[in-house]
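Continuing the series of single-chain predictions for the mutant panel. This is the parent chain; the variants come on the following pages.
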Amino acid sequence: MSNSILDKISGLTSASTVEAKVKMTEPQRKNLMEKLKADNRMNVYPNQFDVKTPFRVQVRKGGEWTTHGYFTNVDVAAAVGTICSAAAFGAKALAGNYDREVVESHPEFAAWLADERNTEVLAAVGMS
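Parent structure:
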Protein backbone atom coordinates (compact mmCIF):
# COMPACT_ATOMS: atom_id res chain seq x y z
CA MET A 1 0.00 0.00 0.00
CA SER A 2 1.35 3.36 -1.00
CA ASN A 3 1.40 6.33 1.34
CA SER A 4 1.97 8.80 -1.46
CA ILE A 5 0.68 12.31 -0.99
CA LEU A 6 -0.88 11.94 -4.43
CA ASP A 7 -2.98 9.01 -3.18
CA LYS A 8 -4.32 11.22 -0.41
CA ILE A 9 -5.50 13.91 -2.84
CA SER A 10 -6.78 11.58 -5.55
CA GLY A 11 -10.42 11.92 -4.42
CA LEU A 12 -10.63 15.72 -4.67
CA THR A 13 -13.03 17.35 -7.10
CA SER A 14 -11.37 18.08 -10.40
CA ALA A 15 -10.95 21.76 -11.21
CA SER A 16 -12.18 21.03 -14.73
CA THR A 17 -15.63 20.11 -13.35
CA VAL A 18 -16.12 23.38 -11.46
CA GLU A 19 -18.20 25.94 -13.32
CA ALA A 20 -16.16 29.02 -14.19
CA LYS A 21 -17.24 32.34 -12.73
CA VAL A 22 -18.30 35.07 -15.13
CA LYS A 23 -17.08 38.58 -14.31
CA MET A 24 -19.29 41.64 -14.59
CA THR A 25 -18.46 44.08 -17.30
CA GLU A 26 -17.39 47.52 -16.12
CA PRO A 27 -20.70 49.09 -17.25
CA GLN A 28 -22.63 46.35 -15.36
CA ARG A 29 -20.59 46.97 -12.21
CA LYS A 30 -20.99 50.74 -12.43
CA ASN A 31 -24.76 50.57 -13.07
CA LEU A 32 -25.28 48.12 -10.22
CA MET A 33 -23.22 50.28 -7.85
CA GLU A 34 -25.30 53.33 -8.70
CA LYS A 35 -28.55 51.40 -8.18
CA LEU A 36 -27.38 49.99 -4.83
CA LYS A 37 -26.53 53.49 -3.60
CA ALA A 38 -29.78 55.00 -4.88
CA ASP A 39 -31.82 52.23 -3.20
CA ASN A 40 -29.95 52.62 0.14
CA ARG A 41 -28.68 49.03 0.24
CA MET A 42 -26.41 49.35 3.28
CA ASN A 43 -22.92 47.82 2.88
CA VAL A 44 -23.88 46.05 -0.36
CA TYR A 45 -21.50 46.26 -3.32
CA PRO A 46 -21.31 44.59 -6.72
CA ASN A 47 -19.48 41.27 -6.75
CA GLN A 48 -17.65 42.06 -9.95
CA PHE A 49 -16.07 38.60 -10.09
CA ASP A 50 -19.26 36.50 -10.36
CA VAL A 51 -22.54 37.57 -11.96
CA LYS A 52 -24.33 34.55 -10.41
CA THR A 53 -23.84 36.05 -6.93
CA PRO A 54 -23.89 39.74 -7.83
CA PHE A 55 -24.10 41.17 -4.31
CA ARG A 56 -21.16 41.34 -1.89
CA VAL A 57 -21.60 42.51 1.71
CA GLN A 58 -18.62 44.37 3.14
CA VAL A 59 -18.20 46.68 6.11
CA ARG A 60 -15.38 49.18 6.51
CA LYS A 61 -14.34 50.11 10.00
CA GLY A 62 -11.15 51.96 10.79
CA GLY A 63 -9.87 51.62 7.23
CA GLU A 64 -10.24 47.83 7.29
CA TRP A 65 -12.75 46.02 5.07
CA THR A 66 -14.45 42.82 6.23
CA THR A 67 -16.45 40.70 3.79
CA HIS A 68 -19.58 39.05 5.20
CA GLY A 69 -20.87 37.09 2.23
CA TYR A 70 -22.00 36.92 -1.37
CA PHE A 71 -25.68 36.78 -2.26
CA THR A 72 -28.09 36.36 -5.17
CA ASN A 73 -30.85 38.38 -3.49
CA VAL A 74 -30.41 42.11 -2.90
CA ASP A 75 -32.86 42.20 0.03
CA VAL A 76 -30.93 39.47 1.85
CA ALA A 77 -27.66 41.27 1.13
CA ALA A 78 -29.05 44.57 2.45
CA ALA A 79 -30.40 42.92 5.62
CA VAL A 80 -27.05 41.22 6.24
CA GLY A 81 -25.32 44.54 5.55
CA THR A 82 -27.49 46.24 8.14
CA ILE A 83 -26.88 43.48 10.71
CA CYS A 84 -23.13 43.72 10.13
CA SER A 85 -23.29 47.50 10.43
CA ALA A 86 -25.09 47.17 13.76
CA ALA A 87 -22.46 44.71 14.95
CA ALA A 88 -19.61 47.02 13.94
CA PHE A 89 -21.05 50.41 14.95
CA GLY A 90 -23.76 49.72 17.52
CA ALA A 91 -26.23 52.57 17.97
CA LYS A 92 -24.39 54.66 15.35
CA ALA A 93 -25.12 52.10 12.62
CA LEU A 94 -27.29 52.99 9.65
CA ALA A 95 -30.09 50.73 8.42
CA GLY A 96 -30.41 49.91 4.75
CA ASN A 97 -33.59 49.20 2.79
CA TYR A 98 -34.80 45.60 2.46
CA ASP A 99 -38.06 43.67 2.38
CA ARG A 100 -38.34 41.84 5.70
CA GLU A 101 -40.77 39.19 4.38
CA VAL A 102 -38.43 38.33 1.51
CA VAL A 103 -35.41 38.16 3.82
CA GLU A 104 -37.00 36.02 6.53
CA SER A 105 -38.22 33.42 4.03
CA HIS A 106 -35.09 33.31 1.85
CA PRO A 107 -32.79 30.27 2.11
CA GLU A 108 -29.68 32.44 1.72
CA PHE A 109 -30.58 34.33 4.90
CA ALA A 110 -31.20 31.12 6.85
CA ALA A 111 -27.86 29.76 5.63
CA TRP A 112 -26.06 32.97 6.61
CA LEU A 113 -27.59 32.89 10.10
CA ALA A 114 -26.59 29.23 10.52
CA ASP A 115 -23.00 29.74 9.34
CA GLU A 116 -20.65 29.55 12.33
CA ARG A 117 -18.41 32.23 10.79
CA ASN A 118 -21.14 34.75 11.65
CA THR A 119 -21.35 33.87 15.35
CA GLU A 120 -19.47 36.98 16.51
CA VAL A 121 -21.57 39.31 14.35
CA LEU A 122 -24.81 37.81 15.64
CA ALA A 123 -23.60 37.95 19.25
CA ALA A 124 -22.68 41.62 18.82
CA VAL A 125 -26.30 42.44 17.90
CA GLY A 126 -27.74 40.32 20.71
CA MET A 127 -28.44 37.08 18.84
CA SER A 128 -26.49 34.22 20.31
